[in-house]
Amino acid sequence: MPFHKLDRPVVLGIVGDSAAGKTTLTRGIANILGPDRVLTMCTDDYHRFDRAERAANGLSALDPDANFIDILEQHLQLLRDGKPVLKPVYNHVGGTLDRPVYVEPKDYIIVEGLLGYTTRAMRDCYDVKVFLEPAEDLRVKWKIQRDTTKRGYTEAEVRQSLEKRATDSLDFIHPQRTFADMVVRFFPPEDNSEETGAHLHVRHTLRPTLPHPDLTPILEAGAKKGLRLELARDVDGKPVDVLEIAGDVDDKRAAAMEDLVWKLIPEAAHLRGNVGRFFDAQNELAMSHPLALSQLMITYHIVKAALGHHAI
After folding, report:
1. pTM of the entire structure?
2. Taking the domains of the chain in order of start, what are their residue ranges?
3. Is pLDDT of 312 > 60?
4. Under a CB-based contact definition with an 8 Å cutoff, are residues 119 and 169 in contact?
5. Is residue 188 over pLDDT 90?
6. Among 201, 186, 187, which residue's Cα sits nearest to residue 249?
7. Residue 176, CB-side half-sphere exposure with 13 Å CA sphere
8. Within 13 Å, how many C-alpha atoms sit on residue 151's CB side?
């Protein structure tokens, strides 16, 4: 069937709980596509209250009532239509609401945050929807690392916040998983439960809401060690494809698999760049092959969406 290139921005959603890895995943995808062609938005900017006000009124940032969901919905629709918005700004360092900024849409729009799939109107704005659900113990470690080094919290304060937010996570964040085209789960290997970085495994739950690529050549490249694909049942009982990428895949095999993913999107060959980069527990730049392959798999869908392969 003929495909028609979209004449509007392509919109990718990345939703997950606090410290699920959304920003790291987003940054890598933007680097592949070309930062000058990507508008990255964080739904945290639409918080209704600053940090002190939330502490006083007992609402957490995970609660839709603590966010301007209707304005976020409106802004997503405007940007998807190619129109600019005056976007609010939430300052994570100070927990304050800063002066709004004027933003214009670009070829690609990545919307990452806690509540991106909250309403039907918001969900209808995305061409590709991803949900991040790292193993919970891993997410806790990531959150402690991030909030104590970058946001001025003590470890005790972070753990107290996690405890207070636990119910809201279950009520407001986790239900959004059901709307994703692709669920990405990083988790440590059985023989190294303390792993938090480069050697984490990753599992992709691929739902039939998008036409996923033929992975046969990639699986053959990683057959001896590194990749596994199987048909499974998701938590809701529906059939899905599950792709697992091992954290200990060697450099040569990983490079071969990455080359094969790039061959699936020849339209984007000129966009090729470094992927899989992240800051480790020592806040030093490191490389993860599972992260790189995850970023490439998502980029595949964004590029195909731009070409009209699964336009909505």
Report:
1. 0.92
2. 10-306
3. no
4. no
5. yes
6. 201
7. 28
8. 19
Element (H, E) at 230: strand 227-233
Cα(46)–Cα(134) distance, integer angstroms: 24
**Residue type for position 156:** A
* pLDDT at 217 exceeding the cut of 80: no
Predicted pLDDT at 50 = 96
Contacts of 191 (CB under 8 A, 6+ apart): none
Contact present, 253 and 225 (Cβ < 8 Å):
yes
Q: Say which CATH superfamily domain 10-306 falls into.
A: P-loop containing nucleotide triphosphate hydrolases (3.40.50.300)
Sign of the CA dihedral running 27, 30, 36, 39: negative
Whole-number Cα distances in Å, 162 to 21, 86, 87, 170, 226: 16, 32, 28, 12, 33
* Element containing residue 90 per DSSP (H, E): strand 85-91
Return d(Cα 220, Cα 292) in angstroms, integer.
18
Taking the C-alpha atoms of residue 225 and residue 60, their distance in angstroms, rounded to an integer, is 43
174 near 183, Cβ under 8 Å?
no
What is the per-residue burial (b if ≥16 Cβ within 10 Å, else e) of 183-203? bbbbbbeeeeeebbbbbbbbb
CA distance 67 to 51: 12
Structure tokens at 180: 């994703």
Strand (E) or helix (H) holding 150? helix 136-150
Question: In angstroms, what CA-CA distances link 135 with 179, 186, 201?
Answer: 19, 6, 10
